[in-house]
Amino acid sequence: MKSLKRARPRFGHTTMLLGVVVGLCAGCGDKLAEPAVLRDAAVYESALLHLIDSSGVELSDRWADPVVFVETLEPESVDLETQIAVVDGFQDEYRIRFVDEISEAVDFELPDLAVREGTLLVAFGPIVVDGDDLLLHGEYYLGATDAAAFDYRFQADPTGNLVMVGDPVDGVTELVVADA
Amino acid sequence: MQAFHSFGESLFALSLVGSLFFNVSIDAARPRIILYLAVTMAPFAVLGPLIGPMIDRVRGGHLMVLVSSLSARAVVALLLSTQLRSILFYPEAFALLVGAKVYAVGRNSIVPSLVGEGGDLMSGNAQLARVGALAGVLGGAFGLVLLRVGGAPLAVRCAALSYALGALAALRAPGPQPVESVPVATETAEMHRHGVRAAASAMAVIRFATGFIVFHVGFVLKSSGQPAWVIGTVAGSIALGGFLGTFTAQHLRRRHDEQQMLDRAIIGLASVTGLTAIWFAAPTAVALGLALGLAGSVGRRAFDGIVQTDAPHARRGRAFAGLETRLELGWVAGALIAVVSRAPGWLGLLGLTFTLVLIGVTQMLRERSDRSPIGSAQAST
Among residues A7, A147, A152, A168, which one has the fewest Cβ atoms lying within 10 Å of its Cβ? Predict the structure, then answer.
């Protein structure tokens, strides 16, 4: 009887421990390996490089790394796995920081509602599938009078890699910082 | 051992600045953080009841808890150094957190045995806290240099090395002094004494506030676009507050009893939290970090004093380990509420201020009534 009493909590502990392990495994997942995540990350990375170049900004390393803030024009349109892949993709060049609030990137004390010194704010719309092509709207923002928008089109090349088709088309800026 | 652990803790905390934690959107990461905080609580339900009996019964059990938690942290930190920007960051970072909590439970349960029957638990723990805080501040300063030179991965690798050295130091720690065996019922009865329960509740509130502030202020600092050095300074101010708290506790002890010290720690923390809620900026965030470290340190010294006086037998082994586990769960609960609530910076801090004031004032009033002749007669029954 005594041994039975001792055995019960041990079974409980083992079950709970298994639960923890299962929970951890479930949490990890293998979404990073999903082609959709890698595809979306490649699209954002390509557009980011173009936006950084177009802005002509000299990113400062006063924050330890040159920082590019990324905002999404539609809430939660870039999932966590894709954000991680994008951050990882630029790890040797820039620190990509996805923001929840515009105040993270914009210094409201500065004239012209400029972004924090030596940084750049980029905003993306969701990736839209158009037949075999992928469409993306992207913008950069340095201040209320220094912003630009582009519409990108991507296509898979014969080797399966995504490539930007043609030159990005000038678009209309949607990120209105003054209202933030 | 404590110095190496604290040194590693500071390095790890600073490395978070260069990790995913501050580089992905909080809204996107929130479900994952909630999941892992919830998962963090589960091991305590499993390990909590096991640590006490292990310390009590297994020969060298106290060393086993410390060495295994520090070794596990060294291994996980090493893995984490290559995955700071990978999806594996979250499970590994929270595994490190579980290791830290197990280490804290193990260390706090062992100290009473190390100081022995005649030893002063409060002084013993204060000495440990001073060593830990000094090492933490040094680790923070060293971490800032490492971040600049080799980035977050180098800081985490050095943290892993520090944990490994801590595990080696734990192997050389002296064994607990032999004590007379006390029935479990005696330990339990001591732990249920009014003074111990009140002190444990107050300490749990401070631990809850710590978990809440660490996550809430971390998110607010990210949202307000603060650079890495500000976040590092806030983390350092918590360690500095802990160090100063060991001296402040000695000063307060001359004028107040331990329960009053706990109440003052809560009310003091509430005041600074309220101030930070009204005016959130880098200087007030640093002040809040300082107040948090101070309150935690003063509270801990007072709690130790009460346990030493009111629960001399229960302070060793399973009953105390169980209590320490609940305190750590308080930390996790505070962190969980900070993440789940998604409250704006000022609102979250204001909510915490009201909670702390409410609990602090209730405790003080209850104490006052207990001190009255009728109250003390009721409390003793």
Answer: A7
Tokens of A61: 């390393």
Overall pTM > 0.90? no
Residue B118 amino acid letter: G
Residue A82, min C-alpha distance to chain B (Å): 10
> Which tens digits make up the pLDDT trace of A1-16?
333 333 333 334 444 4
HSE-CB for B315 with a 13 A CA cutoff = 26
Q: Are residues A84 and B87, on separate chains, in Cβ contact within 8 Å?
A: yes
ipTM of this complex prediction, to 2 decimal places? 0.75
State the Cα–Cα distance between residues A104 and B151, nearest whole angstrom. 22
Measured from the Cβ of residue B63, the count of other Cβ atoms closer than 10 Å reads: 21
Q: How far apart are the first and last CA of chain A?
A: 68
- CA B69, CA B43: separation in Å to the nearest integer? 13
SS3 state of residue B119 = coil
> CA B283, CA B263: separation in Å to the nearest integer?
25
Partner residue facing B28 (CB), from A83, A96, A107: A83
Strand partners, A122: A70, A140
Contact of A38 with chain B, judged by CB distance below 8 Å, is answered with no
User: What value does the mean pLDDT of chain B take?
Assistant: 83
